[in-house]
Amino acid sequence: MHPGDVGRRVAHRREQLGLTREQVAVRARMDVSYLEYLESQPAAVDLETITALAGALGTSVRYLLGGGLDSPPGQATPVLRPVVEELQAWECWAKMEPGGVGRVARSTPEGPEVLPVNYRVLDGTVLYRTTARSAAAAAVGERVAFEVDQLDGAFGVGWSVLVTGPARQVTEADAMEWFGKHADPQPWVGGRRDTWVRIRPDRITGRVIRTAESTPSDDTS
Question: What's the CA gap between 19 and 59, in Å, rounded?
Fold first, then answer.
């Protein structure tokens, strides 16, 4: 593992939660200048520091160390006394707000197809970009499902949100230019991707799972 991997995961998780370095430093009881150094420079990190950061960021030491990245999530042993709760619509939007990677599901003549996409949330819609002839672009004009989740087996918590609604291509030049400047979800696969797709939900549901002993603030944000 490259020594800078931990710092990159710390920064990514902090940005997911919308926290400043100062806020995380206070939670982890460390100097903010050290946290800034850790996020920006390759550095060896001791277990005590990683544990403190995992707690401050509501995630696991295993995640910050990059453990399990080659395996599907959810392989940990289920926790005792799990509690599953329905999320309100505003809570679902709050979970999706940071953006990231979700999955678009559509029907094809060969059967259901599920596609990972980098997405952003904008004005009560889900936005992603792709190439004109891609499978993700073929969703345009169809009613689709969009799902995003986050699981942390180490803490036995997680959430999932499911959105359904029509997918439409954005064709207005002004809108596309604005998206490129302010809401651009850069696809991980790279390349030129000029087709913008917007899903306007007509239904949104979500669930959160936590341990019976945890409080609502303990779940994965």
Answer: 14
Six-digit token pair at 95?
């979970």
Could you tell me which residues come within 8 angstroms of residue 15 by beta carbon, excluding any fewer than 6 positions away?
98
What's the sign of the alpha-carbon dihedral 18, 20, 25, 27? negative
Sign of CA dihedral 68, 74, 77, 83: positive
Q: Read off the pTM.
A: 0.62
pLDDT at position 204? 96
* String of DSSP letters for the chain: --TTHHHHHHHHHHHHHT--HHHHHHHHTS-HHHHHHHHHS-----HHHHHHHHHHTTS-HHHHTTTTTTS-S--SPPPSSEEEEEPPHHHHHHHHTT-EEEEEEEEETTEEEEEEEEEEEETTEEEEEE-TTSTTGGGTTSEEEEEEEEEETTTTEEEEEEEEEEEEEE--HHHHHHHHHHS----TT-S---EEEEE--SEEEEEEEEETT--GGGS--
Predicted confidence (pLDDT) per residue in 63-111, tens digit = 787 765 555 555 555 555 678 899 999 999 999 988 888 999 998 888 8
What is each CA distance from 106 to 49, 116, 164, 170, 186, in whole angstroms?
A: 44, 12, 10, 19, 22
* Strands 157-170 and 143-152, sheet pairing: antiparallel
Most distant CA pair in the chain: distance in Å?
A: 57
